Amino acid sequence: MQIRGQYSRLGQRSCCSLYFSTEPFPSWAKALLVLVVLLVVSGGLLFHFRHYFMSVPQVEVDSGVESVQLPFNTTLHLPEDAKVEWMDSGYDKVHVYENGSDQPEEQHQAYRDRTKMNEDLLKTGDLSLTLKYPTDGDNKTYTCTVYSREGNILLKRKVELKVRVPQVEVDSGVDSVQLPCKTTLHLPEDAKVEWKDSNFEKVHVYKNGSDQPEEQHQVYRDRTKMNEDLLKTGDLSLTLKHPTEREAGKYTCTIYSRERKILLKKRVELQFRVPQVEVVTEVKSIQLPCKTTIHLPRDTKVEWMVKSSKKVHVYQNGSDWPEDQDQSYRGRTELRRNLLKTGDLSLTLKYPTDWDTDTYTCTAYNNRKKILIKKEVVLKVKVPQVEVDSGVESVQLPFNTTLHLPEDAKVEWKDKYDTKVHVYENGSDQPEEQDQVYRDQTKMNEDLLKTGDLSLTLKYPTDGDNSTYTCTVYSREGNILLKRKVELKVRVCQVEVEEGAESVQLPFKTTQNLPEDAEVEWWDKFGRYYYDNRKVHVYENGSDQPEEQHQVYRDRTKMNEDLLKTGDLSLTLKHPTERDSGRYRCGVVSKNVLIRYKSVQLKVKGRVQVQDQTGDIRNRSSSIDPTPLMADQSV
Questions:
Q1: Superfamily of the domain at 58-164
Q2: What is the reported pLDDT for 56?
Q3: Architecture of the domain whose range is 276-382
């Protein structure tokens, strides 16, 4: 059949007329058509069957149920000598049925006495597996495979098991928490109940009608409790006293018969909400809260520590014990008065810095070293940020204190590389001690020890100065009196110009009177690696070095005269094009040390060609032009 469109003699489009051609349909076209149809149909069927057979059914249950069934039913006729094998995703045999009976000797020991299959399973086609006492450790994909006598696969099916673990969430510092475990099963009088933590340490053991404290791990001694008549009531819940964040995790309650057969197994996950305190380093002090309503005896010992086991503060026998605390906290901590009476054991930490960011633990003991209360607090001290644009004449890194500083104190500013930025000692600046990178670039206020204003002024900052700066105040003996950090972020200079401009300047101004032997070099970032950099302009030995620059920039660059004296290292780039867009860097090297550095991002906006209604082609900038196109047309 052919379809042709005819037009009327008047030249206007008419309706399409259809007619059948007497020409035979080519055989190759028939074959192609059949092939296309088959591909479409087979593709659809493949998608359907793939979705049907590859989707794995899921079974979800709560931890603590007596059993769960992994379903598998078939209507296929199965031979009497068929073998049925269930395996987990770790290729361990879960259950094997062969020669008309179960084969427990073939299954993995983790599944011994925990699996069961129906009778006459080959006749009924019900190959489902029952798994007793499932826990989240059984969360796997299980595969049932049916084999013929010859070992050929007759049938295969997968089932995914997911056992949900109940969660208990408490605040750090609570007096106690209960881990629930209840059952309606009839438990024999001689049953054994055992609680274990995620490290398989024994938390609590109940056997022969009473607790067995000698069997539990020492960490849990005198801290656990179970209900009376627990086997009769079925309430096997565990009470854990003074829990801490370190004890977060999964706890397992297992009930055994006299023959060590598992009667029940259940898991509970313990989670903590730890209070967080967030401050900036500029605050004078911060309080880490720890309060309790329990009665604290007079001989109670209170101890604050960090994760590394450093002692932050110790209170004992009615007074502080500064000799027991780590030296980094000396003179910086304080507890409230009458703390044992009020139950307010909160710690005040003075002059916090980002070094103090840590997890703090407050523990109260009685005279027998029994824990009465234990609470954790997370402290996060943020470093203040100072952000400025590249090109400003100076930036101040602030640091003010109300502390009384001795006249012989030493003040030292350093960057993140431990390079000395500025040193003040013996009543005056010590420029010979600072690194040459910062020579003539820093300044501090007069009478800084009297006023407490230890701020640092950094002249002509660039992105090369981006760093975290630390100011430390030392006593004559070298002890740290005060420490503060400030993060400086100088935004990269952005320069934008339109293509067609005669030139563009990449600005870089720094301190005057740079070393006479300094070499100034501008380069671009042409490729991905450092060796892809191209030299844009080189100034050395008092003059430009055109033979060193890349040919792309020959006769297109210029720098000011006396640039080392004036500190004006700006570069003029002539006839910029779109290809010149990118990141440019300038470095000043003296005695093989990079003493100045700056980046400049150049964007050259190209021109686009626009055709107006008269057919003229005109150049237009790619930036938005509010002038209508028709206004440019000449008559």
A1: Immunoglobulins (2.60.40.10)
A2: 87
A3: Sandwich (2.60)
